[in-house]
Amino acid sequence: MKADLIVFSGSSHPTLAESITDRLDTALGESSVMKFSNENIMVRLQDNVREKDVFVVQTSSSPVNDSLVELLIFLDAPRYASAARITAVLPYFPYCRSDKKDEPRISIAARLMADLLQTAGAERVLTMDLHSPQIQGFFRIPVDQLLAAPIFFDHFNKVLFKEEPKKDFVLVMGDHGAAKQFAYYFDELELPVAIMDKFRIDHTEKPVIRRVIGDVKGKACLIIDDEIASGGTLVEAANMLKKAGAKRILAAAVHPILSGNAVRKLLDSPIERFILGNTVPVAEKIAGHEDRFHVLDLSPLFAKAIRSIHNGTSLSKLFPPSVRRQA
Ligand code: R5P
Q: Which ligand 1 atom lies nearest to the CA of residue 207?
C-alpha cells in the first residue's frame, strides 16, 4: 500500500503494541482515551491519519467488556478521520469460546463480535490462534490468523529438547479440540501424541477428564492448549497424567488468560513449567514465579504480518511448513 503505516494501541496491552512498533522501527501513533464520569469513553487520535494505513492493537483482556467498547470506538475514530484502511489487530480474540449455538436460546457472541468490529470500521482483522478457525468465516472482510507455533517450536528446540532428549517427550493435547487445532504439531515436532479425553458437563470451571488416550508412562509430557483460563483443564490433566505414570509434566499455551486464582492453582499442580505466549498482559500475574512461568514474545510475528499486510505480500512464510503445504 502506498499510504503511510501507523499503529495505535488501545489501553489493553500497550507493552505488546510497543514491542510490535519497535520491530517495525516506528513509534506508536499518539492517542488518548478519556473516561467521563458517566463511564462513556472518548478516543482521540492525536496523529493525523488522513489516507494512512491504520492498525489498532487491542487484545481481549480484563476488563474484557471495557476493552471491547474501547476498541470499537478506536476503530470508529480513524474512519471519521479519513484513514485509507483500518485493520483491527486482536492478539486474543474477544468472546472466542462462544463460537456455536450448542445450547438453546444462547447467542453466538463471537459472530456478534465480527459484526460489531465491521460496523465500527475494521476493514481487515489480524489475530492469532483462534479458539476455532470458523470464526474467520463470521466476517465478510479478510481475516489473517497467525499461529504462534514457530516461536514455540523454536523455544522447544533450543531449550526443552536440550535439557532432555527429544525422544523422551510426548505431546499431550489438552482436549479433542486441541488435537485437531494443533495436529500440525505432530508433523513439525515428530513426536508421539496423547489426548486428554475431556468434556464439560456444565459451565463450572471444572472439566471432567475420562482418561488419557495414548502412552505417557515414563515420558516427559508437554501439554498443548490454546489458552489457560481458570487453569481447571491443566490441573485435571496433570493429575491424570501423574496417575498414568508421567515422568515430568510441562504445559504450553498461546493465550495465558489466567483468570481468578489460576496462578495459585497452577503453582500447586504437578506441572513443573508453563510456556506461555504474551497475547494478553501476564507479567504482573506471574511476578515472583518466573522460574515456573516462561513467557515467549510473539511480537515478531505480529510485526512481520503488519509489514506484509501493508506491503501486500504473502504471509505464508510466517506459518510452519506443514501448514503452508495445506494452503
Ligand atoms: C477449551 O476448549 C480450551 O482449549 C482450553 O482447554 C480451555 O479454554 C481452558 O480453560 P480452563 O483453563 O478454564 O480450563
A: 14
